[in-house]
From TrEMBL:
Disordered: region residues: 189-209
Record-given protein name: Uncharacterized protein
Superkingdom, natural source: Bacteria
InterPro entries attached to this UniProt entry: Acyl_CoA_acyltransferase (IPR016181)
């Protein structure tokens, strides 16, 4: 929800590896960063096919991350232990069983902008560049998951529609929803990455893919 992970998890590096290693190590041509004065202020890590991403994630990313998690003794840290326990309960409740949208919306991504640089057009510009790449590669659709209502509105603004949502309980928030949004690409008017966006107009930064 755009808050630092330390609110619920103690191992910053491990969670970062868990979320981003597939994208940076196996599909880096679809990772974009936004820089201001050579400082990275936002990123989008994407993939062409979530099916392929899931397979590699299970076989190559999860095992070393789990080993690191155990060796670093993170399970003994109170916040992490509570989070893991909540996740386990959610697994039993079926909260992680979501419909699979990868046939019509095969691509997927994560996006994050440093909180000091939000609402400047950077997220929109990263998405436009990513969608342009997917369009060139003739990918037929893309989906994204979020638990943030603000991000949901942002994605809707970028042309995504809500495909699915359900209540979740693994974070300490009432009324939290897991939301999947999707956007069809082929035959659509995908926003052009070269359009003169507010972010570009402000002339603040470069995007590096
Ligand atoms: C969500 C996020 C990626 C948006 O990036 P951003 O750089 O702040 O958004 P932008 O400034 O590019 O906004 C693009 C458009 O969406 C609109 N928008 C952004 N947030 C919105 C909101 N909460 N409600 C309605 N519209 C919104 C903007 O008004 C803008 O529209 P415009 O082009 O007509 O002015 C960023 O705020 C973020 O990283 N949040 C925390 C992490 C997160 O939630 N990630 C997504 C989960 S996967």
């Amino acid at each position: 929800m755009g808050e630092p992970m330390e609110k619920f998890f103690d191992g910053r590096q491990i969670l970062a590896d868990f979320i981003t290693s597939y994208y940076t190590d196996f599909e880096s041509d679809l990772t974009f960063v936004a820089e201001i004065n050579k400082q990275v202020v936002g990123y989008l890590t994407g993939c062409r096919s979530q099916k392929r991403q899931r397979m590699i994630f299970m076989n190559k990313i999860i095992p070393p991350v789990c080993l690191k998690f155990l060796f670093k003794g993170l399970i003994f840290k109170s916040k992490t232990r509570k989070f893991c326990l909540n996740c386990f309960k959610s697994v039993l409740k079926g909260e992680f069983n979501h419909p699979d949208f990868s046939r019509d919306y095969p691509a997927s991504f994560h996006i994050n902008i440093d909180y000091k640089f939000r609402s400047l057009g950077i997220g929109g510009e990263l998405i436009k560049n990513y969608l342009e790449c997917l369009h060139q590669k003739r990918i037929r659709g893309v989906h994204v998951t979020t638990i943030s209502q603000k991000a949901k509105e942002f994605f809707r603004k970028m042309g995504f529609t809500v495909l699915y949502y359900r209540k979740i309980s693994y974070l300490d928030h009432k009324n939290l929803f897991f939301i999947i949004l999707g956007k069809k690409l082929q035959g659509n008017n995908t926003p052009s990455a070269n359009a003169d966006t507010p972010f570009r107009k402000r002339g603040m930064t470069d995007l590096t893919g």
